[in-house]
């Protein structure tokens, strides 16, 4: 344990040179080691690759964004799968790839709303109507 404490002290001193670490007692350092070990143990990687149809449904930029959102903790494994499910629904209805901006709306909705079957249908309808509105405004501009 002492070697781990010394390693952590060295890393913290390198990262925060202006912070005095001598003020921490050995018990506090041991708690810090345990906390860091627990955090590392809890963060398990989630390996998920898209199949061919899913890859057609989600743009590369959107998928990269989704992976980064998972890595920073904004998406759980469950919500990650929910996002893919919604993207698939949208793709089958609109026959258009889900863009990063649309994916951002989906992630926001999943994180801040309780989606049951009724809410999910309304949400997908909203996204489809939003897509039709954008297409209409583009035609008017032309």
Short description:
With 142 residues, the protein is mostly helical. It is built from seven helices and no strands.
Helical fraction:
over 70%
Please report the number of helical segments: 7
CA-based shape: elongated
Domains (count)? 2
| Residue windows where pLDDT falls under 50 for at least 5 positions | none
Strand content: under 5%
Number of strands: 0
Q: What is the CA-atom radius of gyration, in angstroms?
A: 22 Å
Sheet of most strands: none
Oligomer description: single chain
Separation, N- and C-terminal Cα atoms? 69 Å
Category by helix and strand content: mainly alpha
Q: Averaged pLDDT, please?
A: 75
What string, H for helix and E for strand, traces the elements in order?
Answer: HHHHHHH
Commentary on this structure:
- This protein has 142 residues and is mainly alpha-helical.
- It contains 7 helices and no strands.
- Helix 1 (2-15) crosses helix 2 and helix 4 (60-71) runs parallel beside helix 6 (100-112).
- The longest helix has 25 residues, at 117-141.
- The protein is elongated, with a radius of gyration of 22 Å.
Q: What are the salient characteristics of this protein?
A:
single chain; 142 residues; mainly alpha; 2 domains; elongated
